Amino acid sequence: MKGTVKWMDGAMFVGESGSGHTVVMDGPEDLGGRNMGLRPMEMLLLGTGGCAIYDVLSMLKKSRQDVIDCRVELDAERADAVPAVFTRITLKFIVTGRGLKEAHVKRAVELSAEKYCSASIMLGAAGVEVGHDYEIVEFDGE
Questions:
Q1: Helices (H), 1-142
Q2: Largest CB tally within 10 Å, which of 55, 61, 103, 112?
Q3: Residues 6 or more apart from 75 whose CB is under 8 A from it?
Q4: CATH assignment at residue 34
């Protein structure tokens, strides 16, 4: 995997992935930025959520669960001192569907946490307290 991050001006950078996709990262105005993009640590947090939700949805589809919607809510704390690393991250999956089996949802979240999500497993190995939770919402629409 490769990527490039190029400085634009102030505290703004443009990252380009090896697959050719770009993203703007920027700092707050009080640190020389224009607040026009994600902060790098926000991107790391969202990337972790993206990695985990991909795993969970993939497993739920394989187990033929009728998922209508899924999101992962991320809550993180950072150290007060420099470096302001993540000290805790909680991922809460809210899975909406028809007749979802709790055992399948629970197992998908556990497998993501313990075996498949490279991002959360890597952060956990680095000392971040990573927690996982889920909620199942029964879809009552058409």
A1: 40-62, 102-111, 118-125
A2: 112
A3: 89, 90, 92
A4: 2.20.25
User: Does one domain contain both 33 and 62?
Assistant: no
Residues paired with 40 in a beta bridge? none
pLDDT, one tens digit per residue, over 25-55 is: 999 999 999 999 999 999 999 999 999 999 9
User: Do 47 and 28 fall into the same domain?
Assistant: no
Q: What is the distance between the alpha carbons of residues 114 and 100, in angstroms, rounded to a whole number? A: 22
Boundaries of domain holding 112? 40-138
Mean of per-residue pLDDT scores for the chain: 97
Say how many CA atoms lie within 13 Å of 31 toward its Cβ.
8
β-strand partners of 141: none
Q: What is the mean pLDDT of residues 14-29?
A: 96
**What is the rounded CA–CA span in Å between residue 82 and residue 67?**
42
Residue indicated by tokens 């995997």 = 1
Q: Assess contact for 107 and 136: CB atoms under 8 A.
A: no
